[in-house]
Every structure is written in C-alpha cells, then in structure tokens.
Amino acid sequence: MRRLLTLTFLLALPIFTISCSSGYQGYMTRSYTIRGTHYQPMSVNQALNHSEVGIASWYDESSWLGFKRGNTSLGEKVQPWHVSGAHKTLPLPCEVKVTNLENGKSVKMRLNDRGPFIPGRVIDVTPRAAKKLDFHHKGLTQVKVEVLSVGDGKYKRKAKRKKRFLIF
C-alpha cells in the first residue's frame, strides 16, 4: 500500500509543478483590444504606487487535474486551489492585497490574467479567493486593491509604501 501511495505521488508531482509556472519572463505591459475596447496597461513604476477601490467579482476558469477551458494571459493553468485574479491594466504578473470593504477580510494574491471586461468592475478573483474574502455567495463586493509587487524572480520589484505614523 505504501509503495502504491509513493508511486501515485511521484506520478502526480509533475502535474502540480507544471501547473504552477508559466515560463513567462519579465512584465506583460503590452496594449490589447477586447470587444472593440483598447486597453493600455500601466508601466511598472506606475503600478508600484497603485491602489484603487471598486467592485470585485469572481470567475471559475479552473478544473480538476489540469483540464480546463483555457489558460491565463500568462499561459498558466488555473486550479481550484489557486488564489489568483485578473485585472485590466496592471502589469502581469503582479502581487496585490485585496481587502473586502464590507467585512474587512483581506488576502494577498497573484494577478496572472486580464479582465474583468464588464464595466464598473476592477478585479476578478478565483473562487477560492472569493471564499477567503467571504463574498463567494454574493458574487460581487466592494474592495480595495493595493499593489505589493510586480514581476517574478529576478524581475520582481516591490512597492514602496509610505509609512504612516500615529501621533498622540
């Protein structure tokens, strides 16, 4: 039985490691057009100081064992356990902190896709992220999105946040 479990783990390991990386190098900042609307992503420097408030929604592009309806803009597969999201104009990949303004819950997530392409929405998140933010049952919520870093590996640049001091 132990051999069978070990063999199963060794056979499944490549599926999990392959689904977590895209091989994408640098930052995705090229412009694009969707449904007749042109989008120009921010520069890396603009994004490092970016925060915004708006409506978040969730979308389910994932599936079980790697079979899915497509890949993210970076070519990554989305799995049910991922906490990730989509944004129209931030450089990809990007790490953000999303705070649900209705209940105060927040989560850090990787942005690796473009969207949402519905007017008035600022970010789409995966179902797991929506559950962590406690709005999966509602579908939409008011959030604050703050950029923490842009890029991966040697390309990663962290945001410089202004320090806030409390004076008594």
Given the helix and strand composition, which structural class is it? alpha+beta
For the biggest β-sheet, the strand order reads 3-7-4-6-5-8
- The portion of residues assigned to helices is 10-25%
Provide the CATH top-level class: Mainly Beta
Named CATH architecture? Beta Barrel
Q: How many beta strands in the DSSP annotation?
A: 9
Characterize the main sheet.
6 strands, mixed, barrel
* Helix-strand string: HEEHEEEEEHEE
Domains (count) = 1
Q: Which runs of at least 5 residues are low in confidence (pLDDT < 50)?
A: 5-22
Q: What is the mean predicted local confidence, pLDDT? A: 83
Shape: globular
Strand content: 25-35%
The oligomeric state is single chain
* CATH topology descriptor: Barwin-like endoglucanases
State the separation between the terminal residues, measured CA to CA: 64 Å
| Superfamily (CATH H level) name | RlpA-like domain
Tell me the number of helical segments per DSSP (H or I, 4 or more residues long).
3
Radius of gyration over C-alpha positions, nearest whole angstrom: 18 Å
